[in-house]
Design brief:
With 640 residues, the protein is α/β, with parallel strands linked by helices. The protein contains 20 helices and 23 strands. The chain has three domains: 3-153, no CATH class; 158-283, NAD(P)-binding Rossmann-like Domain (Rossmann fold); 292-466 and 498-526 and 564-610, 3-Layer(aba) Sandwich (Rossmann fold). β12, α16 and β13 (458-463) form a beta-alpha-beta unit. α3 packs antiparallel against α4 and α10 packs across α18. The two termini are 23 Å apart.
Length: 640
Amino acid sequence: MNDIESSGKFPDGAAFERLHELPLRLKVAMLLSADALAWLLALVTVMILRYDFGLTDSQWSWAVGYTLIAIAIQSVVSVFLNFVRGRNRVASFDEVVAAAGIVAILIFPLGLLISTLVTDLPRALAVVMPPLAFIFMGAVRGLYRILVTRAKINENGKESASPAIVYGAGEAGRQVAQLVDHADESPYRILGFVDDSPGKQMLRVRDYRVIGTGADLIKIATETNAKTVILAVTKASASMIQRIARECADHGLEFVVIPPVREMIGGRMSLDRLRHFNVADLLGRRPISTDVRSIADYVMGKRVLVTGAGGSIGSELARQLNRLGPSKLLLMDRDESELHAVRLSIDGDGLLDTDDLVLCDIRERDALDAIFEHHKPEVVFHAAALKHLPLLERYPLEGWKTNTLGTRNVLAAARQHGVEHFVNVSTDKAADATSVLGMTKRLAERLTSWHAQDSGFKYLSVRFGNVLGSRGSVLYTFRAQIERGGPITVTDPDVTRYFMTIPEACELVLQAGAIGRPGDVLVLDMGEPVKIVDVAERLIAESGKEIEVHFTGLRKGEKLHEVLFSTSENSNESAHSLIRTVSVPSLSPADIPERPKNRETIHDLLGEEVRSVETPNASDEKYGTSIDPETTVSKGPRRA
């Protein structure tokens, strides 16, 4: 256990804490007096250790005079450069550098000069005194910092503060401890750290000991009576977060996380940004960096068109593109309400009377030609699509008309009107496609590849998995089901999906558009797949309700586990660590019929690209234990 925790409160801590309430001038005077005392102690120390006070009167006079000059220089420079205000009163790294600078640059050379010119000032005194004074000044500030920090801990250690273990003894963990120590009313009282690095065991972070590894988390929490675990690891993997969340839930511990790095201003955090673990944290913490300059190079000052601009991906693309300074941002959708919503989200304009709002269905080739002729876009992001797998299995012709013929129409209009940069938004269901959704989007990838080869223009596709929080996603569905009192429906206990937040996915789509080559399919690194039942359980825990989970069995065309690459594809690295590239065989628009006769026609068009895959349904025993669609699992409120 942490020494502070085990030794209880410090009876004199409140007195030191009240130092903060003193007037600034009085605190400055006290600190300057402490610095002066440090120089006098240095003088006395040298006299005892080196001269045993055996100096002549003249030498004593010069020694005291030199000390007073040093004190004067120290005080004037400290006040002039504000080294006695704010954080520099508490032994920060900044003050260590500042004090060392004053001693090394001003006082130390002055002592050598005087001792050279004046023989009555012992040279040893001029050489030894400044380092000693520096050490004493640091000791005074360090003692002040320790006492005030411990006083803060005592003050924050009241009953309402939750005793907490910080998981992660790196820079993020240090910041968390600092925030808790200096908060007037912290909701947490730190007991110690755990960290998976063997080299950090038994070390101290801001006077708190690293008391074990993550494997001992529950044991340590039990022994110290911890009630909260604060995760302070900026690059925590999805599996790590899921493990900690599950352990905390099983043992009734509150689980609190720091915000992702991308949400921290200047890479720093504040105490009020610490929050309870939520569904988005299941995805893990991967810093996503983008080369803004390379993206701006093909967007800034250009006329940019976004199809499907009212959808989850299209609207976020539009918002991010708007910040990159296009000369004109055209928003196209067939849903007038969604166009209204995305326009409001970008600039608050709800009049619907601007030329950049385009109401059009991509199935209508003539309408597309007229729009491209009028607006003359230079860059196109094609995000319009039908995406609900079960509905497209029932109505495959609708998926064909939008996802395949619609993409063919947009590509043709773009080619005809000189668009040189085209980004087709695809899906992981296009890899080893077994559904109408996957097949139609696979054909869209191949059509895009053909136009790239035929024109030499930068026409490419970007493939990724599910986005968290989009309309119709599992998050949206589960929350609606919880609101109705349940049950939550999940197809299979083992079903997994790749997820990414919408902003992260769109950032990488824009980046892919910058680094991709003509005809490429760029595949986003989606991290680790997430079990859908884990998402359901997390949302139930957040709701605090008694909700059941029903397993219904996989639906037609659905996979137990999605893949990002087809078995026939060989992926290659790209210029970005989270993006890989694959090549797909091109498909001429002339080979696309206006209306396929049946589902088998789509298979025929894909040819060898679609392998014969039997999708495991709920009753297929050869894929494991058969699932009774009526099976239910009762879930109640759990703290995590």
